[in-house]
Amino acid sequence: MQKFSDYSAHIEKTLRDLDFPGGALAGLYEPISYAMSAGGKRLRPSLTLMAADAFGGAAEKAESAAAGLEMFHNFTLLHDDVMDNSDMRRGRPSVHARWDVNTAILSGDTMLTLATMQVARVDGSILREVLDSFNDMAVKVYEGQRLDMDFETSDNVSLDDYLHMISLKTGILLGTSARIGALIGGASKEDADRMTEYGVMLGNAFQIQDDWLDVFGDSTTFGKPIGGDINNNKKSFLLLSALASSTPEAEALREAMKLPAGPTKIKTVTRIYEKLDMTARCRDAISAYSSKAIAALKATSLSDGNRAPFRLLVEKLTGRKK
Amino acid sequence: MQKFSDYSAHIEKTLRDLDFPGGALAGLYEPISYAMSAGGKRLRPSLTLMAADAFGGAAEKAESAAAGLEMFHNFTLLHDDVMDNSDMRRGRPSVHARWDVNTAILSGDTMLTLATMQVARVDGSILREVLDSFNDMAVKVYEGQRLDMDFETSDNVSLDDYLHMISLKTGILLGTSARIGALIGGASKEDADRMTEYGVMLGNAFQIQDDWLDVFGDSTTFGKPIGGDINNNKKSFLLLSALASSTPEAEALREAMKLPAGPTKIKTVTRIYEKLDMTARCRDAISAYSSKAIAALKATSLSDGNRAPFRLLVEKLTGRKK
Fold first, then answer.
1. Residues of B with CB below 8 A from A112's CB?
2. What is the interface pTM, i.e. ipTM, of the complex?
3. Rounded to an integer, what distance in angstroms lies between the CA atom of residue A313 and that of residue A182?
């Protein structure tokens, strides 16, 4: 058994070895190389390697698919950054800021096809199943992004709508990363389904932790400025939970949302969240999703030893500061 | 044996029957439905059906892949229209003009994945080969689009550079459409390669005809205003051929390129093209590519009867007014 950090080091090396054409086509491939070298937790491909290893000692065989899942994730970031007009990503200019919007669109498209090609490098016996899982997941991620954008201009977003959206946009990609690894490792259909469930629940917990960190994190460890969601009136877990509470604070929050972006707004909204003890509310939700992830894991045929890194990963991610 | 128009009517019906989710996800799928219903020649999917029929009487079996190839083509149009800032497409507002840029990006991404899913609906025995052909083609189309964009700001584009670019951006998609149809029909590897060559050459001829129509066509039959390429100093077959000629007209053309967009510029450049007899120059190039397409077709194991619609298609497309 290896730890998550061993798998993430493994995939980091695989990604570093990816080779892209240059010359006349540098304008297409340099932004891809730039995006793929930006680091990050490598959560998705590490999950793929970990699952392939747990089910069949097959981490090496899953390298290409793992790299494809990370490339898919990075493709969505390129296009999301254009759509959200986000000029920074992991402490560096995002691709459209460093180059231009057209480059982000076209190099992003290229990444999607390259990702599909890499995921397809699996045994013929599981090609159809892996490919279907990947494509179904991709469509759900787009659906999640569409809902997320539509939420911005809607006054009618419920907490359930939000939870559905994050499972599409975040959960299912983590679930499919675990699933494809399991399939490559030779897992049964039932075990693959359980690993998918594990990943979806882990992803949902992860996203709520992310929402919490955006308010209560430390900007130096979190890697981006605190309060961005508050300034943008982003429909996060915290905002929607707080608005749904039948308290005077919900009304105060509605007023605070009208404030212009800035330190006063961040301070005012943060205080409301503190009064409503949103930290405990987030902790409860994260804990509920984590329990579901662990339950799905326990339902697999994996040995305790092989389950261990997945259990540790839940603890690591839900206790994280970044 | 059927005619091209029978196959295009067939695929038109298949495309009309495509069903997309609505409800909360209408914002994602309505633009896709809009883009797919805009008509056009349906050249690519018709080629797929025609090849599947010629090699194995398997037009029905190729329906899904054909629809996928048309969807891929339309996805590239959505994103190209954003990149080129083109607000009209086939006489209607383009998707980003009718909705917005974010919608064109995200619905376009969705079309790429849906296209891949549809192309993948082939027998398991040819899945890997069809998928590889499709993905390799997609990457080449992006490379062609990148070169096309880079040409805009370059003073060093040769006619050979241009011919390479159009074979990436246009030829290979037509070639792959024919190839995938042939594979579905049960063609040998050699025949599939020859049909690819047929399609690539047909596509190159088609593109040069398009460049010619942009100058000498009739705007009512061509479906878009004449002279757009001239106004934009677009590096077309005509512009690059004329600039490469060691004539006084080449110098006059360089001067005319500095004129502001408008009727005077169009008239001036068109006259230079007339003096250089660019119509004959285009006709020769189209004829050379057409001959190569026919030669590739003749090298296949198809009977004369089964070759006929492909031969007729070359004549139809290179003699077209729209």
1. 109, 112-113
2. 0.97
3. 16
